[in-house]
């Protein structure tokens, strides 16, 4: 059997086929939001929204970040783009430590890291024309354009599949999918290297979702973009990602290339998530065995000790409540934080939870 | 014998300052006790208006309603508002997408179930409370005896949805309509709620209508499926008809738009071009023609003549000018292979 490795990895082992320096590198990143009470705002606790996560993102790849509501996906996105400042750990962008960089020094870097938001309705100013919205980054960053801002904006509109003549229209004149395209055009204005897309399609209708997913893929190929895509929809994430990280209550519990993650998920939580997805195949439903998780996700204000999943895990043993499992590489490029992983190589038919010797971490 | 629920050419139009909104413009289906109908469609296609229409909630609100709704031998479109109100709760009940907006924030969950139960059952408060605790237990709320005194905001999203199901089921309705009951929930909680609805339906033998935009959710529960587009039913058939031999280009588009976990990933999704129509300005002829890749095949007719909902085989209804043979050939030779090619 494979013993989980105990030493903390200094480098992310899940490297994609492309080698080289990671564009983004996150180590033990934390964000604890203080919880205050009363007149004097006395701190009574902390929401551990992100509680020590590490991952790398390589140039040209798409990393998917999945997990249920409140697990810390959006907070992770806001931390790596430094819309929030981490309370611990380290964020490196192109080899530079930006963890606590001042807003002034961050400003030139903001061009390189952009965020796409979930809600195409509230993320666009209703009083500004499409031209003003998409052109704003040029003005804010004082960027010179070869043929003027208007031409640059019209090129961008065309790139995302909008009519360049819509330059003078207002957001309310567009459908949800078109508004998301406007948001994407704005994001692309400054030719970013890294785009963090936070639920870019979840507010859209199914037929429009597919249009935007295809657009994101086309833009990646054309402009050599690197993506971190945050989403709760596991099918969408599989479709667009090269690698996928699964979060649960502020932690990454599993990270692997997309094929291994979906074909041989190791963390019980990943297995439960995948088996919960409704399958559009009515004949298949009778034969499907579903892992029924009981209960809801616990509050990040008071996460369960050691393995945070133990309150809902059907494989949980004593050790799970006492010793936190490290995120260990159990197969090439496939890391998982669990004492009794599923599908682990070398343990094909022995249910890991059935073993009686405790695993020491 | 006539079906338990029989809806014929239902139309619900709202006169507004901007013009007439044809929210529901020709919906036909029937449903037996113990069976589940899934209604799918994108936002604004008229799903919710249809369900509220069956419950009689548009009555007296300036809506123009026509067509027929037969529930257990009684016609409801022509029935009085008071009469239909009397049927709600006991005969038919509804589960909404957002339980917070459907529950009163200042009353305990228990009080709300008790009140709903006592409208139709002349029992003491104590008896009704026992029933409420029993119902909360049945839908999987832990410690129902204690939780019955909680307020809605003290519940998590999944628990609130369970509580609303308990409330809807408290009078053992014969028809239950669930409008996007899991859309706001996480996938593991969604799976719990879908399991619960399936189990309860078997136990109560009620007729269930589940409304959603998620083809996976309808596939999990439905016996029959109705696909809506622009206020109209464009395809209606058994779950097998819709998933294994769909005939409407819009249904094909929905299937092509959806990445799925049960197959090798396709290289690209196959979206539908354009966006759904506004119901004030539904395109003339076939409402789908501006987005339909096959519109040319039906020539001028696509733009000028509204296709009728016509039977293709064994209760499978399709609203499209193409001939059934032409549609089947397209599905077999073009669409299906494209959906399955990695
Ligand atoms: N500014 C804040 N102050 C206090 N708590 C916060 C703050 N922002 C986020 N949180 C909490 O941190 C946790 C993680 O939030 P986050 O928004 O990252 O979740 P998420 O994974 O993006 O969820 P969703 O899928 O619902 O968008 C949640 O419990 C949230 O309530
Ligand atoms: N009371 C009303 N007055 C005018 N228009 C309405 C009313 N209720 C719904 N509509 C319109 O009817 C259409 C269908 O709405 P709905 O049934 O809620 O869609 P969905 O399929 O998303 O549930 C929408 O265009 C909506 O704006
Ligand atoms: S460590 Fe234990 S409780 Fe945690 S996921 Fe693994 S088996 Fe379950
Ligand atoms: S009637 Fe014509 S336009 Fe409408 S769905 Fe059929 S082929 Fe397409
Ligand atoms: Mg979020
Ligand atoms: Mg609705």
Automatic annotation (TrEMBL), chain A:
The lineage is: Bacteria, Bacillati, Actinomycetota, Actinomycetes, Streptosporangiales
Protein name according to UniProt: Dipeptide ABC transporter ATP-binding protein
Extract the Pfam families matched here.
Answer: ABC_tran (PF00005), oligo_HPY (PF08352)
Where in this protein does the record put region Disordered?
Answer: 1-20, 341-361
Family (UniProt) = Belongs to the ABC transporter superfamily.
MF terms in GO: ATP binding; ATP hydrolysis activity
Q: Cite the record's Low complexity compositional bias ranges.
A: 1-19
Under SUPFAM superfamilies, the record lists:
P-loop containing nucleoside triphosphate hydrolases
Annotated ranges, domain ABC transporter: 24-274
Q: Report whether Transmembrane shows up as a keyword of the record.
A: no
Biological processes, Gene Ontology terms:
peptide transport; transmembrane transport
| Sorted UniProt keywords | ATP-binding, Nucleotide-binding, Transport
> What CDD domains does its record include?
ABC_NikE_OppD_transporters
Quote the SMART domains the UniProt record gives.
Answer: AAA
TrEMBL record, chain B:
InterPro entries reported for this sequence:
AAA+_ATPase (IPR003593), ABC_Ni/Peptide_Import (IPR050388), ABC_transporter-like_ATP-bd (IPR003439), ABC_transporter-like_CS (IPR017871), Oligopep_ABC_C (IPR013563), P-loop_NTPase (IPR027417)
Q: Which GO terms of type biological process are on file?
A: peptide transport
Location of the protein in the cell: Cell membrane
Specify the domain of life of the species encoding this protein.
Answer: Bacteria
Keywords on record: ATP-binding, Cell membrane, Membrane, Nucleotide-binding, Transport
| Any Pfam family matching the protein | ABC_tran
Q: Which SMART domains match?
A: AAA
The record's Gene3D superfamilies line, in alphabetical order, gives: P-loop containing nucleotide triphosphate hydrolases
Might you report a single GO cellular component term? Answer: plasma membrane
Q: Where is the ABC transporter domain?
A: 5-255
Give the molecular function GO annotations: ATP binding; ATP hydrolysis activity
Topology in membrane = Peripheral membrane protein
Q: Which family does it belong to?
A: Belongs to the ABC transporter superfamily.
Q: What is this protein called?
A: ABC transporter ATP-binding protein
| UniProt organism field | Nonomuraea rhodomycinica
